[in-house]
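Q: What would this chain look like folded?
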Amino acid sequence: MSILESERYALEDLDRLEKAIADRFLDTPRTHRDRISQEHEIASFLDRIQHQSKFLLDSFEDAHGERQREIANLSGGEISQFDEFYKQLKSIKDFHRRYPNEPVENLEENYRKKRRTDDDSPDLDTIDTMFTGEEGLGKYFDLIAFHERYLNLRGVTHVPYVQYLDIFDKFEQLSRTPKDDDYFKYLTDLSGYLEGFLKRTQPLNDPEGMIAKIEENFKEEWENNLKQNGSTENHKRSDPTADGFYCDACEKMFEKQTVYGSHLSGKKHKKNVELKEKVAVNGASSSAADLKAQAITLREYEIKKLAEILEKIREETKINVERKSALTLRERQLEMEALEREEFGGDEDDGEGDQEDDGKIYNPLKLPIGWDGKPIPFWLWKLHGLGVEHPCEICGNFVYMGRKAFDKHFMEARHVHGLRCLGIQNSALFREITSIQDALALWEKMKKERRAQESMREQAVEVEDDEGNVMSEKVYNDLKKQGLL
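A: My prediction, written as C-alpha cells:
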C-alpha cells in the first residue's frame, strides 16, 4: 500500500472513530455492566486514535523523503503519470490473483455497537473476565487475599476483614513491623492492585496520568524532606502523612521526641550505628538502605493516595461485606440470580420491539411495580414481607404493606398529624402504637408522671420561717404573699 493511500485510510479511520465515540456517548447505559463496557470501548477507540494520529504525524514529517518522491511520481516527475498508475494497478491485480478469497475489511462494521445477542462480541466477555466475583464488576474491592497476607506479617495484631478495609492504608500502626522483603512485596502487590483497579473502573479519567502525578508529588516531598533533614539517617519519616520519629540504624519508629532522644543515647543504638559505619567503610553502598526506605515509602504513599481516590469504593465495600455477613446462603443465591437477571436481561427485548411497553403488563398477583416499570419478582415480594398488612388506626385505618413501610410511617406526616389531632405530642415512646385508645392511655399516663415529678420537685426544697416552722418552698411563698408570715 502506498504512503498516500495509508494516510487516506488513517484519516478515514479517524473520522469513523470520532463518530463511533459520539454514538457511544449518545447511548445512555442502562446497567453498571453497560457503563463499564461502554467506557472501555471508548478508551480502546481513543488509543487507536492516538496510534493513527502518531502515524500521520510521522508520515507528514517525511523524515526519509519517501512521501515527497511518491507525490513527485504521481505529478509526472521522473516517471510519467500513466506509468505509475499502471504500475500500481498491476500490483493490485497481482495481489488479488494470489489471494482471490481475501475478505474486504469493513470499517463501519468494526465500530458498530455490539449487543449481547451478537456472536462476534468478545468485548462483553472481556468485561466478565476483567473483574472477580467479589468485585462485582468494579463496584467493590477484593482485598481478601491481601487481608490474609497482612495478618501473616510480623508484629501485626489480628483484625477482621471489615476493620482491615479501614486500616489497609494507615501504616502508622505498622511501625513495629520489620521492613523486610515480605513487607515490601505486600506493599508492591497492594499498590499494583489499586492501580489496576483504578484503570479497570475509570478508563476515561486518565488513570496513567493520575498515577504519574502521585509519583511526581512523592519525589518532590521526598527531596524537600531530605533537604530539611540532611539525610535519611535518624530523621523524621519522609512520608508526609506519618507521625513520629524514625531511627534508620535500628529501623524503628518512635511517637514521642523524648523517647526518641533517650533512644539515641542507648547502647543498642550506638552499636547499630557502628555496624552501619563499618559496612560503609568496607565498600558497601550506603545508599542501599536509603533506596530501600525510599521504595517502601513510595509504595505506602501510593496506597494512601489511591485509597483517597477510591474512597467511595471502600465505603461501598464495607457496606457490602457487612450486609453479606447477615445473609443466609439461600438469600445470597437469590441475590446472585437477581443480579444476573438485571445485568443480562436488559437488551433481550431490543430486537423484538417495545411490545411489552405498549401493551398491558401481566401482573396476576398484584405485585408492586419496580423501578423498571415491571412487577418485582415474587421471591423479593415474599422476602420483604410485602404481603403482610399492618393497619394503623391513628392514620385513619390506613394499611401499610410490609414491615419496612410500617416502621417508616411513624415519622411521616400522616401519622404525626393523627397524633396532633388527638392532642398528643409525637415522641419515640409512641412508636409501634397504632390504636387510638392505647395512644390516649399512654398520653394520660405520661401527663400524670410529669405532674407527679413536678410536685416532687416542688416538695423537695424546704424552708424555715422566723418561728422555726419547716414547710415547703411553695407553701412558704404562698403564705408570704398573703402576709401571714
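The beta strands are 245-247, 252-254, 389-392, 398-401, 462-464, 470-472.
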